[in-house]
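Summary for the steering committee. One of the milestones for this cycle was to obtain a three-dimensional model of the protein with guanosine-5'-triphosphate bound, which we needed before selecting residues for the alanine scan. The sequence and ligand used are listed below.
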Amino acid sequence: MTASCPKCPPSGAGLSAIEAARQGRRLAVVGLPNAGKSTFFNRLTGLSQRVGNWPGLTIDLASAKVVLGARAVEVVDLPGIHDLSGYSEDEAVVREVLAGSVFDGLVVVVNGAQLDRHWRLVWQLAQLDLPLVVLVNMQDEMRQLGIRADLDALSARLGAPVLAMSARKGENWPAVRAALTQLAAQIPAREAPVAIATLDALPAGLEEARAMLAGVHHVPATLPATWTTRIDQLLLHPWLGLPMFAVLMALIFQATYLLGTPMQEELGAGLDWVQAQWWQPALASAPAWLQSLLLEGVWQGVSTVLTFVPILFVFFVLMAVVEDSGYLARAAFLMDAWMTRLGLDGRSFVMHLMGFGCNVPAILGTRIMRERRLRWLTMLVIPFSVCSARLQVFLFFVSTLFSAQAAPWVLLSLYLASFLVAMLTAWLFKRALPHREALVMEMPPYRLPVLTYLFTRAGGEVKAFLQLASTFILAGVVLIWALTHLPAAGGPTLATQLGEWLAPVLDPLGIHHELAVALMVGVVAKEILLGGMAVIYGVPEAGLAQVISQQLDWVAAYSFMLFTLIYTPCLSTIAAIRKESRSNGFAALSVGYSLALAWCVAALFYQGARLLHL
Amino acid sequence: MTSLATLAAHHRAQVVAIDLPDTERQRLSAFGILPGAQVQVFRRAALGGPLHVAVGATQLLLRRLLAEGIRVELQGA
Ligand SMILES: Nc1nc2c(ncn2[C@@H]2O[C@H](COP(=O)(O)OP(=O)(O)OP(=O)(O)O)[C@@H](O)[C@H]2O)c(=O)[nH]1
């Protein structure tokens, strides 16, 4: 799957950009979801597209230039589709792309163990009068299952090259490259894209595909028991399945905390040292306001945010393991019955889990749902999933205000709160958004994550975070500095005025007035919150902890965290919701509702705790 | 002839007919569930949850609601 998080560099280009960039020949990579397109694409182009063992989608179009033989060829990875004449969003996207821009040839990636299911798309694509190469992927799994296919015979029947491949292990790679090189060398440049009429008139092709496979594709009547079968007996156990799922999730968050926090402390100490040894002496002769802006504003804000890099890295490695293993489909299976009662389905739950990384890809991931109302309901709950930006804020408060023993549990309680709020929301809105979704999806075999991939993926996320830190977070921090230091002539600062003005709404939640400005700027990106707080209290990372523990007791801090968890998602998420729902009203509802809910929940908690004299 | 939804775990059956609206039938066909296909039920999730079935080498999660519309001929355990 393609991460199309807002922080990532624009690797996914729009149609027009792709059109403008066309030089030489252009190939499209097409196939069913989870066939291994992204793995193949990454191997071919050396990029790190997001790969996941979840029949989801390559969300934006990733394209890259590769040199094949003497020719520079542009390769575009399309979202996974079942059927060119299908009616899902992805199928519409692929039709639109094929009819909207010129492709000179197609590379079709199919799962060799499931040719019976995949070959229909191959047949349909072969009707388009475009040169194509078919890559029969997952040879390793075919062998394990004893599935055989006579690729030479298939090639003769299809009239196009059909090659074996294992994209993950690079099996048969030289032959694959040679076939692609030959394709690139031979194909003429097309003048016009495929006519939409051709696409619309395509027959289903089920019979034709079956006939083509007859006698050349052999699946044993009983498949051998694989690791997947054995692991499923355990993980999908009727009673133990769900508890084990909960334990697994808890382990991931505990591990993030236990592995990441010590590294964070080291880094924080290092950054403070840099400030004391380098910046302070270097700026000693600068005017006071400039010192304040650069040290208390920029450096403190940004360095506080930077200390989270190790934690994010650990977290994204673990998330990638879960995503790539195939366990997410099992989570959907386990949770579906529960989710149905809330008007959602198992996939909504998985999207909520994916939202733990970043809400934006999760919002885009709802495209696999066909029913618009189900999509909307799912989009309404995704922003409540604790994304990595909110995780930073929580980690900070939790490690500052709670003992080392209690901290991981408090963190866990926030994840529970996230699920509870999502459930409440679904329950509230399910009557307004009734639907009947024909849920059927693949449960892919368990697959071992590829180590290098895990690290490139996590590295990519960290890089995106650093880019965000150097733009949005920097700007936000400077803005907060300005609000907390102006007017310079004395009297209440703009931030104080703002805080006082908002006092009637903040006081019932026990949120300090100073923090109002951070919360407001945090709407842009929640990563700014912490940096903003460092600026507000005018202390570096290490000092911030001390100030916070003097200023806030745990009840007020927990109320602040609940508010941060629930209130308005960041701008990128709002934009994604607006784009995917194609409705300003729905986006406004999502924002307004979450703001109101955040206030209610935090107020209930704070007032309740105070009543109990906690 | 029974519906796939009534099949117990580990049973095998052959799909005979699909009594579902066109869009749902088309969707199922994309996963290999067509008249004539051999299916095997691996397990059924608790509380009326989905079925875990296999069609050829593909394993699927299938909503109970859809399974109810799939008519099958039992072939054994
Ligand atoms: N065993 C095996 N697994 C593979 C092979 N190629 C890819 N995979 C795995 O198959 C899963 C799906 O791969 P992706 O590359 O994400 O598939 P995709 O077709 O891009 O999927 P979407 O983006 O969801 O459409 C991942 O877990 C890969 O690691 C292979 O040759 N053998």
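Key point for the committee: Confidence is low (pLDDT under 50) at residues 1-21 of chain A.
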